[in-house]
Known about the structure:
Layout: H1 2-38, E1 42-47, E2 50-57, E3 63-70, E4 73-77, E5 83-85
Antiparallel strand pairs: 1-4, 2-3, 4-5
Amino acid sequence: MDDLWMPIGSLVVIAASVAAAYSMVTADREAWQKFATENKCEVIGYIAPQVVPTTGLDSKGAITFGTSTIPSQRTWKCADGKTYTR
Length: 86
């Protein structure tokens, strides 16, 4: 039974981390929607998602190759005179 506590504890930490990250993203999205509504923001542009190549070094110093994804973004023009990209 003692051997199970480590994996169970790890799963609890991972689950809590995912829940906290989701909560922060949701709160940010809700705050932006409130701001956009109050400031009469309108979408004026769209940037499609992008996949870019990446390079790096592994723990033994060998070169590694991979890809990274940049999510889509929208550009907003708001009544406060500013332009926002999110």
